[in-house]
Specification:
The chain is an all-beta fold. Helices cover about 0% and strands about 40% of the residues. The strands form nine sheets. The chain has a four-stranded mixed beta sheet, with no helix packed on it. It has a four-stranded antiparallel beta sheet with strand order 7-8-9-10, with no helix packed on it. Strands 11-12-13-14 form a four-stranded antiparallel beta sheet, with no helix packed on it. A hairpin with a 3-residue loop joins strand 19 and strand 20. The relative contact order is 0.10.
């Protein structure tokens, strides 16, 4: 502005042990066996304890024959019905364990005219196997990203603005004060976005500037101090935007710098004892780029000179002292990109060297120590893109590798740990864009897929949950 996953058994019916030779002439039954009893064929006198009845009926179209034999050997058609044991003790089998109460019945019906053998049996079906497929996840492809306190902004190729994260003062512009942990499309025709501590800006492709969120210091530039939870038009003819904690910067098409909001530390550079303003005020001219730190501001002029103003306690202005400024002051030349952090500042020169100044207590300058500096020093080379993220810093080298340094208390550097880095360390390959905020960082890979690492308690990664991560993870729609 940045995620899975039975044995089946068949009950088979008993197989008859002999064949019926003639449906009209049945002479005997085969001997049946059991664990403890012997069955005598029907031709013998029934025993007192086990009775098997064989009945021969005159065949008629509706006559039936009762037998323990169910398989037929004939050119004609017979129907054999086999039933499994039920609570009423009726079973169909050629060999069963006899008891004094069981009855074994087999029915032979008159051959049908169609000479078809019909066999009826009861089977147990196998359990139905249900296959649950893993959903196919679609990477969240974006063109531009910005990160702010507790929230994130992404702009797609179709110029739609998507937001996620903290929204309790209306800074997502959704018309409510409900946090989001899934990316939500909110505007169309957007080419840039930026966020301060609790307010946000969005730039339309026609140069219209929109604002939403907290407005207690006039940072929206609406002429009042009323907060908004919907995007409100505040300025026209704008080409670039930036935010500090409680102040806003806008660069108009003709190169003029406009500011609004808090000015307690001189971050607007108005050169007046004005604590804040709620109206957009024009200041510098011939400006090509702008950036806001927490309480200081940076402006890059068309001639490559860097100008700064505001809070300078840690030397973040790079003026050689720690004195605040309330007027814009030139500090560096041959600059092509700038980034203001919490208490430090970064500047990329035309030769690809990265320079830094200011606070370094967390290693955000990447000098190998924790000493602050109030003068600009070279800290890296072969760089083509830079970003600050609270007390950590990010850069992309010419080969597309991501290098990071500084605070890592939330795992925002993506190394799988929470160890601060005091020197610039390679973190990811194939990166084309970066954005950072206090606690979380976003990157765009060279296939335009969004990745993130760090703090996610407000849903700032849009993953559908609020789980933090200390490794870089791909973000899906």
């Amino acid at each position: 502005m940045s995620v899975i996953f039975l044995s089946c058994s068949d009950k088979r019916m008993p197989t008859p042990s002999t064949h019926l030779q003639n449906p009209e002439t049945i002479t005997s039954l085969p001997t049946e066996t059991s664990l403890t009893n012997t069955h005598t064929p029907v031709t013998s006198e029934p025993t007192p304890t086990n009775t098997h009845t064989f009945i021969t009926l005159e065949p008629t179209p509706t006559s039936t024959y009762t037998s323990a034999i169910s398989e037929l050997t004939s050119t004609n058609t017979y129907t054999s019905t086999i039933s499994e044991p039920t609570p009423t003790n009726t079973q169909t089998s050629t060999t069963l364990e006899p008891t004094s109460t069981y009855t074994y019945t087999s029915t032979i019906s008159e051959p049908s005219a169609t000479d078809t053998i019909t066999s009826t049996s009861t089977t147990t079906s196998s359990p139905t196997l249900t296959h649950t497929s893993t959903p196919i996840l679609t990477p969240f492809f974006v063109n531009k990203i910005k990160a702010a306190s507790g929230r994130s902004f992404a702009i797609k190729n179709d110029e739609t603005l998507w937001v996620t994260g903290y929204n309790e003062t209306g800074e997502l512009g959704t018309g409510d004060y409900i946090n989001r942990n899934k990316w939500e499309q909110i505007l169309t025709g957007i080419i840039d976005a930026s966020g301060g501590y609790l307010h946000s800006l969005a730039l339309k492709n026609d140069g219209t500037l929109l604002a939403t969120g907290k407005n207690d210091h006039g940072q929206l530039g609406t002429g009042d101090l009323t907060r908004r939870n919907t995007w409100t038009e505040v300025l026209t003819g704008v080409s670039k935007i930036a935010c500090g904690d409680y102040h806003s910067l806008a660069l108009k098409n003709e190169g003029t710098l406009w500011v609004t909001g808090k000015n307690y530390d001189g971050q607007l550079g108005i050169s007046e004892q004005t604590l804040s303003t709620n109206k957009w005020t024009q200041l510098l001219t011939q400006v090509s780029a702008i950036s806001g730190g927490d309480r200081h501001s940076m402006a890059l002029k068309t001639d490559g000179t860097l100008w700064v103003t505001g809070y300078n306690y840690s030397g973040q202005l790079g003026t050689g002292d720690n004195t605040d400024r309330d007027a814009w002051t030139q500090v560096l030349t041959n600059v092509i990109a700038i980034a203001g952090g919490g208490s430090n500042s970064l500047a990329l020169k035309s030769d690809g060297t990265l320079w830094g100044t200011g606070g370094n207590s967390a290693g955000q300058l990447g000098t190998g120590n924790t000493e602050d500096t109030n003068t600009w020093i070279q800290i890296l080379d072969n760089v083509n893109s830079i970003a600050t993220a609270g007390s950590s810093s990010l850069s992309i080298k010419n080969d597309g590798t991501l290098w990071v340094t500084g605070r890592n208390n939330e795992g925002q550097l993506g190394f799988g740990d929470y160890i601060y880095r005091y020197e610039w360390t390679e973190s990811q390959p194939e990166v084309i864009a970066i954005a950072g905020a206090l606690g979380h960082n976003l990157i765009i890979k060279n296939n335009n897929a969004l990745w993130g690492s760090g703090f996610n308690s407000s849903g700032q990664f849009g993953t559908g949950n609020n789980t933090n991560t200390n490794i870089w993870i791909p973000i899906y729609e």
